[in-house]
Structure formats: structure tokens, C-alpha cells
């Protein structure tokens, strides 16, 4: 089979052989204390491609020890020094973009071109926060009574636990590590057990970039709960940043509440994609393809519910069907593949159940798609129209290439349907009416709004949700503040002494 340059079996082997497979604790790569390992599989074939150290609770606590020990020295480095380290890390990630992309495709399945896109996106957090590291500032002001001065300063929160998901193995790690390091925090990173390799490769590049021992530790484990809970309950940990599903986020929030631990939560989504009757339909279809099928539909920002005005719904569906029929399902390493495998069997089961439920409740199957035989966990894209209220697919994150269309009659109904979910991460809207776009920005219950675009993620913008989609923001000017705390100083009025030489004139 034809492969893109850089995706030959020999290259895959070379890249896999170069990945460290131990735990990184206190600047030393090492096996788990128990000696245990777990398998990492390629979802395109089901083959085991690597075995990595399987940390237990004691390993996690040793990583926290290292973060605590390295904390004061790292916090005391000059902001410019931290910026330079992050900037070198950016350069190294870009230099190794092809290898990182290959690794991601092998352990996660997305098409190679998309993995390369994620490397660019993920690297950008290192560059963005290298620039933010030197811009942390405080305030000086007069209190309202005029009797004193108020000053604020920002200081690093301290050791952090960063828990990341499998769907964007590089970008979800850099989106946390870069602001934490820029702020002067030390971190323990716990990647998903399905995709630990990219994080391990990133950690090796961070070391090369000059990140000192203990500032970044990586703990891979097949027992996430057993390893994370003792850290969350340990008073030395000062921050938990989690990206993943809402149920796990909610469990971790409950654990964190005991010590009132600071948290950032980037959780699940159920994005509405609104197409109004005045929309540029070509643009809407382009946006729909990106918002639905990027990452094989496995993105928290994936459009989950296509809500289309009655007047344009048939035409929208006709054009979408034409585009979906062009999709090429296959290994992410094969040239021309647009839809790689889903991450695992559970993901295939979920797509099957949601499609079956929607059809039983009256949806029309426009493109059947469905399970693909053979090794690997593939689902060919499905398009459903006339999806009826009450269908499970309208409530549940599909996390797969199933595009479900429902209709609305007017703007009020569109907004009501869009907001009819516990989630509020991102919404998309296509309209040429500027006033309507502004109304949507003010009425949709969402952390982000893609207006006439199908992708919103950008290192320079605050990413995050409302409602059950999470707490806090990553990226943008806001991102670094998740890792800083504000200290306020009160001083007397320096002019209070009337005999002061520079008394107010
Ligand atoms: P997940 O099952 O919640 O897992 C996320 C991470 O949490 C993984 O590292 C996982 O480790 C770990 N974890 C699981 N149970 C844990 C526990 N009891 N204690 C501590 N850690 C635990 O989510 P996922 O399936 O990997 O990712 C998909 C979800 O992430 C979707 O809902 C998606 O919307 C969301 N997501 C959100 C954003 C955002 O920015 N809002 C971005 C990407 C993804 P193991 O995998 O090793 O079990």
C-alpha cells in the first residue's frame, strides 16, 4: 500500500524504538517499582506496539516528591530563563514533528496529516507560553477610601498533577505543561494508558530543551485512579488540571474538594452546529466536515448535533452526503486516508448503539457507514437526518464519525435546542446576519463559539467550557493564570505623614 513519506514500516519501528518506555521521575528514566509494564496497541491493527512502565501508587508519590523538591528552585528562575527553555522545547518539537506525528498515528489512529496538524497546534502552546512567561504582572492602586495602597503579585501555585486524555496526546499535554512551567510550577504528568508514547517522547524533548530534573515527571499507569488519588489527597499537591470525560472529572472534583485543591477541568462536550437559512452553505458544509470528522470525530469540540433551518436542511444534507461519500477509511499511515480507526472496541459499540437508537426513534439513514470488518476498530462515516427529539445521540457525546441532523424553524427554537444539554463547551453557527451572530454569542450557553468556522482551537485563545464542560481556561492570556495565585499587599498611605517631603501638592 502507498504510504506517505516518513510512514514506512521501518520508520514506524525506528520511531517506536526511540521512545523511552520507563517512568520519568526526578530526571531519571526508570522502571516501575514493581517492574510491571502494560501494552500499548495500534488501533489500526490491534497489534501491541510497545510496553511501558506501569506505575503504582508509590511511583506516583515519588514523582510528587521530585516535583516538591524541584519546586523552589524552578519558581526562583528568572522568567526569561523559563521562557528560553519553553522556546527551545517548541523548536525541538517542530524539529521532530514528523516522528511525533507518526508516533501519535500509531498509538491513536488519526490520519498522519492530522497528527502533523496536532504537532503544530501542540507546539504552539510551548511558544505561546514562552512568550507569556515574561508578562506576569501585578497591580498598584489606591484603596477606595484613599487611606492606603493595594499591591498584587502573582506567584506559582506549586506542584501540579496534570491528567491528560488519549484523543490529542501531544496538544493536551503541552496545553498544561507549558503554562505550568511558564508560571514557575513543577508538574507530574499522567497520560492516558491508551496513548502514553507521545507524552514520553515529549518529555524526552523537554529534557533536551533544558527542563531541570524533577520539574516534569511522567507517570504512565494502567491504574489511573490508584495512582492519582493519593496525589490528590496529598497536601503537598497544590493543583490538579484534568482533561477528560465529565464523569471522571466529577469524581476527581469530589476527591479534590476534601482539601479544597485548586482545579482546572476540561471536560466533555455536546456541541451544536447551527446552520441558518441565510448561511453560506458551501462554507457550512466545509465547516461541518471539519467540526465532525477531525480526529475521526473523537474531539471534545466535535459537532455532535447538527441543527439546520427547515428551509435549507435538505440541501445541506445532500451536500454533506456527497462529501462524506468521498471519505477514505483506513490506517492513518496510508496515503489518502481521511478516517482512521476509532480508539477501541468500546468506541465502536457506542457508535453502533447511538445509531441504532436514533434509527429506532425515526431518523433517516442517509449514509449507512458502520463497522468495518477486519483487524482494527473502524467505523465508516454515517449520516442521519430527521433525528428525533429524545434520541440518545442528542444527549451523548458520540466521539465517532456519525453526523446527526435535526431541524429548527426559527432562531428562538435553534437557541433552545442548542442549549438543551448539560454541556457547554463549544457551539458553531453559520449565518450572514451580524446581529444574529451577536445575539447567539450572548444567548448560547457555551464557552466558545465558532462563527462561520469549523475549528476554534488556537493557542492564543482561552479554551474551555461552561456547565458540565468544565472549569477554567487553557491557552490565551488566561491560561497561565490557572497556575498562578494572587497575593495582595496592603500598605499605609505614603502621604499620610503631613511632614513627608513629597507631600501631595
Ligand atoms: P477519561 O476516561 O475521563 O480519561 C481522561 C484521563 O483521566 C486519562 O488519563 C485517564 O487515564 C484518567 N482517569 C480515568 N479515570 C481516572 C481516575 N479515577 N482517577 C484519575 N484519573 C483517571 O477520558 P478519555 O476517554 O481519555 O477522553 C475523552 C473525553 O475527554 C471526552 O469526554 C472528551 O470530550 C474529553 N476531552 C475534553 C477536552 C476539553 O478540553 N474539554 C479535550 C479533550 C478531551 P486512563 O486512560 O489511563 O484510564
Would you kindly provide a written description of the structure presented here, covering whatever features stand out?
This protein has about 500 residues and is α/β, with parallel strands linked by helices. The protein folds into 2 domains: about 10-265 and about 470-485, Aldehyde Dehydrogenase, Chain A, domain 1 (3-Layer(aba) Sandwich); about 270-450, Aldehyde Dehydrogenase, Chain A, domain 2 (3-Layer(aba) Sandwich). About 40% of the residues lie in helices and about 20% in strands. The protein has 14 helices and 22 strands. The protein has a 7-stranded mixed β-sheet with strand order 14-17-18-13-12-19-20, with helices on both faces. Helix 1 (about 10-20) crosses helix 4 (about 95-110), helix 5 (about 110-130) runs parallel beside helix 6 (about 170-185) and helix 10 (about 280-295) crosses helix 11. The structure holds NADP nicotinamide-adenine-dinucleotide phosphate.
Amino acid at each position: 500500500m502507498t504510504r506517505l513519506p516518513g510512514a514506512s514500516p521501518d520508520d514506524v519501528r525506528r520511531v517506536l524504538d526511540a521512545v523511552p518506555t520507563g517512568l520519568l521521575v526526578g530526571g531519571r528514566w526508570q522502571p516501575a517499582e514493581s517492574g510491571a509494564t502494560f501494552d500499548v496497541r495500534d488501533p489500526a491493527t490491534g497489534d501491541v506496539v510497545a510496553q511501558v512502565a506501569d506505575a503504582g501508587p508509590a511511583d506516583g508519590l515519588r514523582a510528587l516528591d521530585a516535583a516538591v523538591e524541584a519546586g523552589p528552585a524552578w519558581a526562583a528562575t528568572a522568567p526569561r530563563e523559563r521562557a528560553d527553555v519553553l522556546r527551545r522545547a517548541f523548536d525541538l518539537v517542530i524539529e521532530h514533528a514528523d516522528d511525533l506525528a507518526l508516533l501519535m498515528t500509531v498509538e491513536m489512529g488519526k490520519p498522519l496529516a492530522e497528527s502533523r496538524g496536532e504537532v503544530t497546534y501542540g507546539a504552539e502552546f510551548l511558544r505561546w507560553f514562552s512568550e507569556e512567561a515574561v508578562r506576569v504582572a501585578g497591580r498598584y492602586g489606591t484603596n477606595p477610601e484613599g487611606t492606603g495602597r493595594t499591591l498584587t503579585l502573582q506567584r506559582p501555585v506549586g506542584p501540579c498533577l496534570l491528567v491528560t486524555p488519549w484523543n490529542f496526546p501531544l496538544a493536551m499535554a503541552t496545553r498544561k505543561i507549558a503554562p505550568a512551567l511558564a508560571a514557575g510550577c513543577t508538574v507530574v504528568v499522567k497520560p492516558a494508558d491508551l496513548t502514553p508514547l507521545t507524552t514520553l517522547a515529549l518529555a524526552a524533548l523537554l529534557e533536551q530543551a533544558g527542563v531541570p530534573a524533577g520539574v516534569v515527571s511522567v507517570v504512565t499507569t494502567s491504574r489511573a485512579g490508584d495512582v492519582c488519588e493519593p496525589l490528590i489527597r496529598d497536601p503537598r499537591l497544590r493543583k490538579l488540571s484534568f482533561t477528560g470525560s465529565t464523569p471522571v472529572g466529577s469524581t476527581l472534583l469530589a476527591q479534590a474538594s476534601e482539601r479544597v485543591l485548586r482545579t482546572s477541568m476540561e471536560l466533555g462536550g455536546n456541541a451544536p452546529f447551527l446552520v441558518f437559512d441565510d448561511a453560506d452553505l458551501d462554507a457550512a458544509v466545509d465547516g461541518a466536515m471539519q467540526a465532525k470528522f477531525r480526529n475521526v470525530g473523537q474531539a471534545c469540540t466535535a459537532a455532535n448535533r447538527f441543527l439546520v433551518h427547515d428551509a435549507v436542511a435538505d440541501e445541506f444534507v445532500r451536500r454533506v452526503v456527497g462529501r462524506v461519500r468521498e471519505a477514505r477509511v483506513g490506517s492513518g499511515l496510508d496515503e489518502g486516508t481521511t478516517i482512521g480507526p476509532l480508539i477501541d472496541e468500546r468506541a465502536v459499540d457506542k457508535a453502533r448503539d447511538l445509531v441504532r437508537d436514533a434509527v429506532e426513534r425515526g431518523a433517516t439513514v442517509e449514509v449507512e457507514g458502520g463497522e468495518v470488518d477486519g483487524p482494527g476498530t473502524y467505523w465508516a462515516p454515517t449520516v442521519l437526518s430527521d433525528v428525533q427529539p429524545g434520541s440518545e445521540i442528542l444527549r451523548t457525546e458520540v466521539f465517532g464519525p456519525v453526523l446527526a441532523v435535526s431541524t429548527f424553524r426559527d432562531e428562538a427554537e435553534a437557541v433552545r435546542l442548542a442549549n438543551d444539554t448539560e454541556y457547554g463547551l463549544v457551539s458553531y453557527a453559520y449565518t450572514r446576519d451580524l446581529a444574529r451572530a451577536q445575539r447567539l454569542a450572548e444567548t448560547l450557553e457555551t464557552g466558545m463559539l465558532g462563527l462561520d468556522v469549523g475549528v476554534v482551537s488556537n493557542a492564543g485563545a482561552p479554551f474551555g467550557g461552561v456547565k458540565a464542560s468544565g472549569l477554567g481556561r487553557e491557552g490565551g492570556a488566561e491560561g497561565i493564570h490557572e497556575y498562578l495565585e494572587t497575593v495582595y499587599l496592603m500598605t499605609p498611605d505614603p502621604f499620610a505623614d503631613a511632614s513627608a517631603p513629597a507631600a501631595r501638592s
